[in-house]
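During the reporting period the student researcher (J.K.) took over the structure-prediction task from the postdoctoral fellow and processed the backlog of single-chain submissions. One of the processed entries is reproduced below for the supervisory committee.
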Amino acid sequence: MRLRAWQSCDKHERLKPDLGFENFTQPWVKKIAIAHSGHAPYGEKAKQAMEFIDASLHEPLLQAYAITKHGKDSKLAKDFYDFMQTEDSIKVMAKYGFILPNK
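J.K. obtained the following structure tokens:
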């Protein structure tokens, strides 16, 4: 797999080829950017490579959903909330890399 990494010249720290993806876990790394996968083939390849990064190298991104006070009487909001708990929804979420707690 061939990827290119770039960093600002004013950094005291340097990317170390022998660390591979672990370079991106170093405390001096503040941002990681890749080309938009819909616009550039190398963006798609970078996206694929990032999907293989070991989940133990980062804290989980915890997200939730709820019906807001504004939507509390909305049938559509309730239907969506119920749908998000179905097996079909869970399969779609898993397809895009979302992992549910206790899964």
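The committee noted the following: The mean pLDDT is 79.
J.K. will present the remaining backlog at the next meeting.
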